[in-house]
């Protein structure tokens, strides 16, 4: 017994993922299999929600073989002394590796590739996501063996939660000396398979799928190690002897590049969509953009999108006849133009919140029992800009001017707080009525203003592309500045127009492209715009005008002032 040590396992789970249930399953599995085990939990806080790590130790000798002796377990993990690190989220895996928990000569890592963005990642104006490829490199560098796959996708596919998938991954890894039947008995709650309830059946599906994935990955890794260990001659002999059907050769046929078109995402594009004329690098984004705009408005509006893209494509083909740059200008325009054309307004919000898919998603997140009553309330606070957006320009200007006079007089901007019960017939009817106002959207002032600004950007891309491919590409990438809603959206459009007016027209196209790239990076790095103003001035362009902001003085009421005065 002195020469034996416990198997150590650290499980990392986010809040609500069932990490506690998983730990109970593992301890109960050890008990049924006849092994001593101990588990502890360490509550913590992740970058996005509550995160708890669960530490498990299992003595690898059955209790029957210990002669009445009992092993002594530790209550917390020791950095570098883990046999396995199991995690439901890739960044949490990297976080524990950064804490020194994993060791390249000892630790086996079982991790999901799924990501839940942190608050810091969501706060970025541009794409603030951590590079998943770098996180995977970290896992590979600090693990003796690793099996990585999307556990969240498996859980959704099997209709269960990720804890059962984690259990299947642990079982399939062969780390713990338990037979598979003991794991399954615990998930079923000790009842026969045919008597297990629906929840247990779903958990068993997730368990089985993860078990197969991890066990399959281990078999492939063992096969490769065995073959490579025998040298090149053994590898050639095995490949010729198995005729490419041994599990390695079959992998090459799934990369979608065999020319058969079995995995071609573009094979089902309808001819009437007019997308088949776009080059392959553009077609995927154009297809998604077209579908988005049909859903947002109608087919004529989506056809306008294709018409604009064709203008960009013609200009790019003239600037780059050989397609050496893989039609990057048209590809970027296909992405950012679709997002801008589908700008958010109250009609769009009402449409999304009243869809059946949204109700199903809410039910899936809440998971109400059969007898539970689920109520969903949506809070809205539309103001003058939202209502003016649907009015003709003349009426919209009058309404906005009225609200500005209110603000200038020291009053709050007008708004209408609403609480709508989406679960009620009246609330759903109100939202669907608002969502049906697509016909009014195209007649409103907001629509006309957005189209005008899109036209200026499109013209800037076309003119820039004619002067030089790099300049047109940098102007197309400025579509990233248009994001969000409200003040954020307005600020992005103002920054874009300022860049077009003061940088795109510089005499030297190469210098103009460089200046625009730096200005765009500065605008996305600093929400306040100070970095953008400094960059503009560095390239000889004027800084943006300071927007006037009303100053409101709030007087205390006499009674409140007297109450705040200390007693004599």
Give a written overview of the molecule.
This protein is α/β, with parallel strands linked by helices. It folds into three domains: 7-250, Pyruvate-ferredoxin Oxidoreductase, domain 3; 271-341, no CATH class; 449-538, no CATH class. The chain is 53% helix and 8% strand. The protein has 24 helices and eight strands. Strands 2-3-1-4-5-6 form a six-stranded mixed sheet, with helices on both faces. A hairpin with a 4-residue loop joins strand 2 and strand 3 (50-58). Helix 1 (19-33) packs across helix 7 (180-188), helix 5 (151-158) packs across helix 6 and helix 11 (299-319) runs antiparallel to helix 12 (328-341). The longest helix is centred in the middle third of the chain and has 32 residues, at 198-229. The radius of gyration is 30 Å and the shape is globular.
């Amino acid at each position: 017994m002195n020469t034996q040590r416990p198997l150590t396992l650290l499980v990392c789970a986010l809040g609500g993922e069932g990490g506690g249930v998983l730990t109970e399953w593992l301890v109960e599995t050890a008990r049924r299999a006849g092994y001593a085990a101990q588990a502890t939990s360490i509550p913590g806080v992740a970058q996005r929600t509550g995160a708890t790590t669960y530490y498990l130790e299992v003595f690898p000798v059955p209790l029957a073989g210990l002669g009445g002796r009992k092993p002594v377990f530790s209550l917390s993990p020791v950095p570098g002394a883990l046999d396995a690190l199991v995690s439901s989220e890739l960044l949490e895996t990297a976080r524990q590796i950064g804490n020194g928990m994993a060791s390249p000569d000892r630790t086996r890592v079982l991790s999901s590739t799924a990501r839940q963005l942190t608050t810091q990642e969501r706060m970025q104006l541009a794409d603030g996501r951590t590079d998943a490829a770098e996180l995977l490199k970290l896992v590979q560098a600090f693990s003796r063996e690793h099996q990585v796959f999307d556990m969240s996708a498996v859980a959704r596919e099997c209709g269960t939660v990720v804890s059962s998938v984690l259990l299947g991954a642990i079982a399939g890894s062969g780390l713990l000396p338990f037979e598979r039947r003991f794991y399954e008995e615990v998930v079923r709650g000790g009842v026969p398979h045919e008597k297990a309830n629906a929840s247990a059946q779903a958990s068993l599906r997730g368990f089985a799928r993860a078990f197969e994935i991890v066990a399959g990955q281990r078999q492939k890794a063992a096969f490769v190690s065995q073959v490579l260990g025998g040298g090149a001659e053994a590898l050639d002999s095995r490949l010729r002897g198995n005729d490419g059907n041994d599990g390695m050769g079959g992998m090459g046929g799934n990369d979608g590049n065999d020319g058969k078109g079995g995995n071609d995402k573009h094979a089902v594009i309808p001819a009437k969509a007019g997308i088949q004329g776009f080059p392959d690098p553009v077609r995927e984004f154009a297809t998604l953009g077209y579908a988005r705009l049909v859903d947002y408005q109608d087919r004529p509006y989506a056809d306008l999108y294709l018409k604009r893209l064709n203008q960009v494509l013609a200009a790019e083909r003239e600037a780059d006849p050989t397609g050496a740059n893989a039609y990057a200008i048209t590809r970027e325009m296909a992405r950012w133009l679709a997002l801008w054309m589908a700008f958010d307004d109250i009609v769009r919000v009402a449409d999304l919140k009243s869809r059946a898919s949204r109700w199903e998603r809410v039910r899936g997140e809440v998971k109400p029992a059969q007898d539970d009553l689920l109520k969903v309330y949506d809070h809205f606070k539309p103001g003058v800009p939202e209502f003016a957006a649907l009015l003709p320009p003349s009426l919209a200007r009058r309404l906005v001017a009225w609200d500005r006079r209110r603000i200038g007089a020291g009053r709050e901007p007008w708004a209408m707080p609403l609480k709508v019960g989406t679960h009620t017939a009246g609330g759903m009817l109100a939202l669907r009525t608002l969502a049906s106002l697509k016909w009014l959207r195209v007649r409103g002032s907001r629509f006309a203003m957005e189209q005008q600004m899109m036209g200026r950007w499109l013209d800037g891309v076309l003119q820039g592309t004619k002067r030089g491919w790099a300049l047109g590409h940098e102007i197309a990438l400025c579509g990233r500045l248009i994001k969000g809603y409200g003040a954020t959206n307005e600020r992005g459009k103002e920054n874009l127009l300022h860049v077009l007016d003061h940088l795109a027209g510089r005499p030297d196209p190469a210098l103009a492209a460089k200046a625009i790239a730096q200005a765009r990076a500065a605008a996305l790095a600093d929400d306040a715009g100070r970095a953008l103003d400094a960059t503009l001035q560095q390239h000889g362009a004027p800084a943006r005008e300071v927007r006037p902001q009303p100053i409101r003085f709030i007087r205390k009421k006499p009674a409140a002032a007297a109450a705040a005065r200390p007693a004599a």
